[in-house]
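Appendix B, Record 12. Input sequence as logged:
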Amino acid sequence: MYRVIQWATGSMGRTSLRRIIDHPDLELVGVYVYSDKKAGLDAGQIAKRPDTGVIATANIEEILAVEADVVIHTPRITLPYEKLNTDVTRLLASGKNVISTAGFHYPETHGADYAAPLHAACLKGQSTLAGLGVNPGGLVERLVMAATGFCAQLDHIDVREMVDASAMTSPEFVFGMMGFGKDPAKEDITKGPLAALYTKLFGEIFAFVGHAMDTKIARFEPLHELTLAPEDLTIGAGVVPKGTVAATRWRWRAEYENGAGFTLSILWTASPALHGGETGGHWQVDIKGRPNISMSLDIHEGDPAAPPSRALTDATMAAALRGIPDVCAAAPGFFSATQRQALIARASDKKKRRA
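Logged structural output:
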């Protein structure tokens, strides 16, 4: 039985909270919320479950005082990227392992100034920090790099993702963190704080690939693109005015010292129709070498009445929660690239779970 604290209760957090409450091997012992409206509520009320006796708090001191094996850390990614580090450092130093879906996949990527305080907190608390999820955290690290093992010669890896944001309902996220609705004549987001944020987050994947190939990055460049709305577009989060950003393609290319290359493209769009023949809602992978390998991964919702975003949320939290035993058993410090690469998703419990 693992004693678990749920940190944040947005869409990811509520999904995680339900899974923790329902799981026979997990005991919910604390819930941290950012909203004063949720503070004081029973966790069951937040998760649409019967009362649990665990009361949500917006006071980190109360969370630090709780004895727990692990914190499932699911806040939104923030500007700047390192803004979350203060809370995570305190959690680690208090003796709690942390599994985050908001970064921390490969902290060493960002140098000693970034990584050293986090690592010192791990040593102080004898705890482990892990970033787990789908991308970053799973797709490239576990699936794509495993596929490169079929290549006698590896020349280039190309990973392309498309996310249809038309059904997303959070204006703060869609028009803030995704950059929709920005006027490029007034603000070029491909060179601003958002670009820096996503370069830090997804840059960790490039460092991981280099580690997996036992090489280092020789050259790294951004190749970002914006698509502007040809007319006013009404989506779940509001209206994207004509002439403003309706899609962001965050794309980077790396060349490694061993001669191989890697391109990663993350396309977020208000309408897949803006992108010709590109297919939405999945990843396309092309590995060039001898031989060539192509793959497609689609994570989709089986219930037509459910929001499309639920499938990826479920997958992300499944990856995080299934990592609990491995992270809790790991040595103090960062959950290493090798450990993440070897992490195998356990079979779901055969008992029927409530959705």
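Confidence is low (pLDDT under 50) at residues 344-355.
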